[in-house]
Specification:
431 residues, alpha+beta, 5-stranded mixed β-sheet, 17 strands, 39% helix
């Protein structure tokens, strides 16, 4: 066999390897997601990462599927896709057993998602994403609860109110704005897509394109979109004050304040792909100057089950990705200090019998002490150095003398403090 060049040790572009320290941070994030979701009564579900490509074509269109997903034909000739998002899957699951499920339905999942796009800060080709959805609630209580879950996760991770802002908008209100401005459906669609890019364009360039689309109405639109609260927005478009969307937004704002979530404001430039949503939309935005960007968001999508031929079902949800969230924690100094799960490292001295050390380790593990044993024949200094490099907090040197006397010296590596304990006292020390 001809000599082959050595394989690369780098992961596939846009994906990550999780060494123990990285996995610790990921589990810290996922743990907060699970804890808070379940505190609100949400139940975890799961599904295969492979879905029929038709599911995404029906929801997002062929162009997005062809350009932004990992899609292939399996050996049975079926076109399948690695899931780029979870909402179509949960909609399929709910539609499939709608008559058997108890509503309102509160579900969450933390799937691994795959999207073929250019990797950049806060966005990779693969990530973990919390999905929280409530089905069967028509009123604004659903939005209030779901946004409260999102805020609760941020708070559990150590974020303060001033570290992030929750932005709100409403698809119905924006549709009404387009009509009030006298725009056709096509003009409204184009202006909506332009609004979605507003923060990524120079102001003069945005204004020029808006005028091409909306003519003289663009000036009114631009003033309204610059509003920082709902009242100011309605001053520019007073005819919309009686629109039901205004009442819904006001209810959500009041409900969140009652729930203790006050870092919320109306933002008419928030779009979040309006073709998908049917009511309130929201987004969490990092306020740090060095990371001013959207972290995640969601909204109401009452029509999604229709792609399965099912009746409408009220639904509100959001997706929270681990990549942008990790960047947020790093920027705000909230990354946790690494602590390995292993609490004790037993070092073997004086050729002590392996069986005796294994028996001691087994006793400690039965008592709930996470214990690793060094079975090498290295010098004690090297064994202790290995524990220190792995950041295991305690070492226990076990030799013939310790086994015969039944007395052991536990050393805390960070301080060098040694504690002499009997075999019976060891488990209580670590508890």
């Amino acid at each position: 066999m001809a000599d082959l060049p050595p394989l690369s040790t780098e992961p596939y572009k846009g994906t990550r390897d999780f060494y123990p320290e990285d996995m610790f941070v990921l589990n810290h994030i996922l743990g907060a997601m699970r804890t808070v979701s379940e505190r609100f009564g949400y139940l975890e579900y799961g599904a295969s990462p492979l879905e029929s490509t038709e599911l995404y074509k029906a929801k997002s269109g062929e162009e997005i599927v062809n350009e932004q997903t990992y899609t292939f034909t399996d050996r049975g000739g079926r076109e399948v896709t690695l899931r780029p998002e979870m909402t179509p899957t949960v909609a399929r699951m709910v539609a499939g057993k709608r008559r058997e499920l108890a509503f309102p339905l509160r579900w969450y999942s933390i799937p691994n998602l795959f999207r073929y796009e250019q990797p950049q800060r806060g966005r990779l080709r693969e990530h973990y994403q919390l999905n929280v959805d409530i089905f069967g609630v028509e009123g604004s209580e659903a939005e209030i609860e779901v946004i409260s879950v999102a805020a609760g996760i941020m708070q559990t991770l150590g974020a303060r109110d001033e570290d992030f802002t929750i932005l709100l908008n409403h698809r119905g209100l924006m549709n009404a704005m387009m009509a009030e401005l006298g725009l056709s459906e096509e003009q409204g669609r184009k202006l909506s897509k332009l609004i979605d890019r507003k923060n990524k364009m120079e102001a003069s360039a945005w204004s020029a394109v808006a005028k091409e689309i909306a003519g003289e109405a663009a000036a009114t639109a631009e003033k309204a979109l610059a509003s920082e609260d709902l009242g100011t927005f309605l001053e520019h478009l007073p005819a919309l004050a009686a629109h039901p969307a205004v009442t819904e937004l006001e209810e959500v704002l009041r409900g969140l304040a009652v729930s203790g979530v006050r870092n919320v404001r109306f933002d008419p430039s928030l779009m979040r792909g309006f073709d998908y949503y049917t009511g309130v939309v929201f987004e969490l935005f990092d306020t740090a100057p060095e990371n001013r960007r959207a972290l995640f968001g969601g909204g109401r999508y009452d029509d999604l089950l229709s792609i399965f031929g099912a009746d409408k079902l009220p639904a509100v949800g959001f997706g929270m990705g681990d990549v942008a969230l990790r960047d947020f924690l790093e920027v705000h100094g909230l990354l946790p200090d690494y602590r390995p799960a292993t609490r004790l490292y037993i070092c073997r001295a004086d050729g002590a019998p392996s069986e005796a050390i294994m028996a001691l380790a087994a006793e400690l593990r039965r008592e709930g002490v996470n214990t690793a044993v060094d079975f090498t024949s290295r010098k004690l200094g090297d064994q202790i150095g290995s524990a220190d490099k792995q950041r295991i907090p305690y070492v226990l040197v076990v030799g013939e003398r310790e086994l015969e006397s039944g007395t052991f010296a536990v050393k805390e590596l960070a301080t060098g403090t040694e504690t002499s304990l009997s075999r019976e006292e060891l488990p209580a020390f670590f508890r």
